[in-house]
């Protein structure tokens, strides 16, 4: 589904990714772990097409299409979802209005009819329920006045509504308390653990992986994947730290 | 504010005006005069969509209230000029948006005089400017010597879509009383790049993402207007032309 080969990327002319390769098939959940500054967030933004993140070498294809050649909204329409480490506050724009317009823009790009207001609200209510989020929060401006945990929950509600093929979740576990972590973990499993979908989890800690069992774990250090393994690798990292493993 | 001779850019209230357009329209018709009697209420929506110069003189009697909503969007040069006089305990509200692209020059020029004690005024103005357009708000609040307990506010923000557009904003206070509250805030900025990226990452094409953020930026000014829905639609259609 996602094939990254020898990816090099710079931010403000500073090289961050230095030859990263990774292949993710449908039905798989991958976790990328790594120390601060390894390039984890850069990887998510490069794949999400954030302006200012420049690819200098290598390739990334999504279902055979050149991902790096697509605009951010085209990547979304193709089925890519980026869960932000720091979800953005957008004053004055209600969650519901934004998500309905976004979903319908994606549907339009795929040649589907727009979802009616009623059908959309039904879908939104169902996904908010799944993530135990109050429907009133969906009517409020996007992320404005939300706590860190509420913002992350909101990301997962959005993911549920948009129903992507591939989710790249950048530190979705940071800022969550134990209960919220379990809810978010359950949400990821309910929405994404399907044979036709895949997830790339980016995290510092083992704890999210207790709820969302990865099939593969990779260690990212200094812009490259230095080690890959099964779920046991995450526990090893937790025990011994990155320094030893990445060395 | 009524000008008897052709103004030039040396006149503060016409500093940013399109003097050629003013000259062509000269002499201007007499300003429209609106008098709201003591205790009365007045509301109006003004849509300037044809390149007019409109001058309105509004006098609010004791305890009267007026609410004006203005959408300034049309023509090469469009100017709305309000001269408001508030008597004791009167209340004036202005919610205005001006949206311009191309080479448009749009202005809102207000003078609100708190002539007697206890009157309130609140002005909220939002400008969205693209291309090489110019948008100007000149707002003077004058508080007379014995107009104690005056409560006035000017809340002025402009959003520039292109680095070539210009916003002028000058909230101005002239206060002769000593027990008053006169707030004024002014900000000129660009759309938040991270916000735009966030919206696009969910599937909105860049133009739609911009439109959504701009719609939110101007939406509040029409709160409470009788023609709120129509004003929002007109504003949205104009925003759609700019993005």
Can you characterise this structure?
The complex is a heterodimer of chains A (247) and B (243). Chain A has 247 residues and is an alpha/beta fold. Chain A has a single domain (2-246), classed as Rossmann fold (3-Layer(aba) Sandwich), CATH 3.40.50. Chain A contains 9 helices and 12 strands. Chain A has helices at residues 40-48, 72-78, 95-109, 117-130, 135-139, 148-162, 178-192, 207-211, 232-246, and strands at residues 2-11, 14-24, 29-33, 53-62, 65-66, 80-83, 90-94, 141-142, 166-170, 198-203, 216-221, 224-229. In chain A, α4 (117-130) packs across α6 (148-162) and α6 (148-162) runs parallel beside α7 (178-192). The longest helix of chain A has 15 residues, at 95-109. Chain A is globular and about 55 Å long. The model of chain A has no long low-confidence stretch (mean pLDDT 94). In chain B, α3 (206-219) runs antiparallel to α4 (228-242). The longest helix of chain B has 15 residues, at 228-242. By secondary structure, chain B is an alpha/beta fold. Chain B has 4 helices and 12 strands. In chain B, the strands form 2 sheets. Chain B has a 6-stranded parallel beta sheet with strand order 1-3-5-7-9-11. Chain B has a 6-stranded parallel beta sheet with strand order 2-4-6-8-10-12, covered by helices on one side. Chain B has helices at 19-25, 193-201, 206-219, 228-242; strands at residues 32-36, 41-48, 53-60, 65-72, 77-86, 91-100, 105-114, 120-129, 134-143, 151-160, 166-175, 181-189.
